[in-house]
Amino acid sequence: MSKPSERIQKLSESATLAMARKSQELKSKGLDVISLSLGEPDFETPEVIKTAAKLAIDENFSHYTPVPGLLSARKAICSKFKRDNNLNFSPEQIVISTGAKQSITNICLSLINKNDEVILPAPYWVSYLDIVKLAEGNPVIVKSSINKDFKVTAKEIKEKITHKTRLIIFSSPCNPSGSVYSEKELREIADVLLDYPNIYILSDEIYEHINFTTDHFSIGSIEKIKDRVITVNGVSKGFAMTGWRVGFMGGPKWLANACNKIQGQTTSATCAISQKATEQAMKENPKITRPMKDIFLSRRDLLLKELSKINGIICNKPQGAFYLFPDVSFYYGKKDNENVIKDSESLCLYLLEKCLVALVPGSAFGNPECIRISYATSEKNLKKAVKRIKKQLEHLS
Ligand code: PMP
Ligand code: GLU
User: Fold this and answer.
1) Are residues 15 and 142 in the same domain?
2) 97 and 154 co-located in one domain
3) Ligand with the closest atom to the CA of 207
4) Which domain covers residue 294, as residue numbers?
5) Ligand 1 pocket, residues with Cβ under 6 angstroms
6) In this predicted model, what pLDDT tens digit does every residue of 147-191 receive, in sequence order?
7) Whose alpha carbon is nearest atom 4 of ligand 2?
8) Residues 133, 6: contact at Cβ < 8 Å?
9) Which terminal Cβ of the chain has fewer Cβ within 10 Å, N or C?
């Protein structure tokens, strides 16, 4: 039978990557597509990190490293966790992987048994759902909406807990909403979990350095639940290092051992040169990420201003990451001469085909009333894209 396993048949293609692929296809045909689909900083990796990588090549870091990563890199990650997040890990509790995506997959495969429930506040990052499914867990969605700033409360989480609940996964700053959970909100969630000692939290903090307001707070620093929090982070977003493929987790030692075991039988350690670059990134003062954050902030404000000129698009004011996640349901059911907009997918397809702007449907993140707009691109592109969207949407009634 020429078809993949049932496991793979159940897996969806990543919607973010699918949109990026589609816009790339159109671009290669010579079309002037503006891609606001992929969550990838358009900046270059800071020089000091590139220099460390070049040195690593010259110093012949060209061999396999220990599966969880070089001890020196894991030590640097421990110091970073202590310095920035008030998290106390020893190097045995750290596993470096080929991106945070792999860290999340390792953790889910290590923690979830068949039919265990995993709570996902929605909007959730697109891959959480399919990684949980791959691990044979059952995703349990706690839905939020724009009028709650896309956040869920401790009470709403508690209502979804059953004897099968094993894990809660969320990102703060959040992809796709940009929402940031405050220390108070995270402490309330921690309080709920005190009654459920078997439930773990996967706190995805990959947008830590793209936080526009408060200091970043890590739920793992809350003493009473700290042994049940796995903190995932990486260099892709804050340090503009998506292509270097490094992410990492810090968590209980038994879980780090399990992740290490999976990695040892599948990918082995990530690239030695990338690990040395990451080691340098961890040692740097986080201030080096600041110029990029400031640019993201001014783009956010520009995009909010431009979108406010379009009828029927409702935005919240995200406090982090580099996405807007507007509610566009005003347009559902509207049509022009040949097209009917049914949902977030048909709206994204319509905008891609008609005015060559690539976005990602909110349905991929569990909120079908929304679309995701990435502002990891120049102000010029953002202005041009919004102009096109506005003009196109005026055809709908
Ligand atoms: N988590 C979130 C919330 C993300 O947006 C991404 C984006 N790539 C990842 C994890 C994975 O990052 P990477 O694998 O590049 O480290
Ligand atoms: N995390 C980014 C995004 O949400 C990159 C794409 C991906 O890894 O899915 O667009």
Assistant:
1) no
2) yes
3) 1
4) 6-44+289-393
5) 39, 99-101, 125, 171, 175, 204, 206, 234, 236, 242, 247
6) 999 999 999 999 999 999 999 999 999 999 999 999 999 999 999
7) 39
8) no
9) N
pLDDT tens track for 92-130: 999 999 999 999 999 999 999 999 999 999 999 999 999
CATH number of the domain encompassing residue 141: 3.40.640.10
Q: List the helix and strand counts (H, then E) for the chain.
A: 13, 12
DSSP secondary structure of 111-173: HPPTT-EEEEEES--HHHHHHHHHTT-EEEEEE--GGGTT---HHHHHHH--TTEEEEEEESS
Which residue CA neighbors atom 5 of ligand 2 most closely?
Answer: 39
| Two structure tokens written together for 331 | 């347009």
Per the CB < 8 A criterion, the answer to whether 358 and 19 are in contact is yes
Domain assignment of residue 1, yes or no: no
Residue 355 included in any domain: yes
Q: Is residue 306 in a domain?
A: yes
**Number of domains observed in the structure of the chain:** 2
Are 216 and 347 contained in the same domain?
no
Ligand 2: nearest atom to the Cα of 38: 10
Is 69 in the same domain as 183? yes
The amino acid sitting at 124 is Y
pLDDT at position 1 = 75
Whether residue 232 is found in the same domain as residue 173: yes
Residue-wise pLDDT for 225-235, tens only, equals: 999 999 999 99
Residue identifier of the C-alpha nearest atom 10 of ligand 2: 39
Rg, C-alpha atoms of the chain: 21
User: Would the pLDDT of 18 be above 90?
Assistant: no
- Please tell me the distance between residue 20's alpha carbon and the centre of ligand 2 in angstroms: 9
